[in-house]
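From the shared-data thread, chain only:
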Amino acid sequence: MNPTPHNDRLEEFFRQSLENLPPSPEPDGWDLPSDRVWEGIQAHLDGAKRRPAALWWIWGAAAAALLLLATFFFLWSTHRRLDTLSRTVEDNRLRIEQLQQALEEAQKPLPPTPAHSDAEIAREKPT
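Structure, as tokens:
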């Protein structure tokens, strides 16, 4: 069984190249970064650079909370308006039913009244 899990040529090339390296770096220090690189790294390690990121997170969280609050208020006010409109529609429906019943009552024919003679009407009138 082969000790390496992959048998591709690139991996074999790197393995052979790295095995032939000397155990310690060259004395001229070619493998050490320059002072400019270390200054850049140090600048990024300072705590001052981390504040804007933290400030950005605070502003982002505040914006998200504001958006959530605005969405909640919008949904709440819409629900409230729908309730009010539903009550108004129901009140109007009941009022229409009452008016229809009153109209039906008004359109019913009156019961016939007995015909009165002029003499009966004169008798009923006090003189």
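The CA atoms of residues 25 and 31 lie 7 Å apart.
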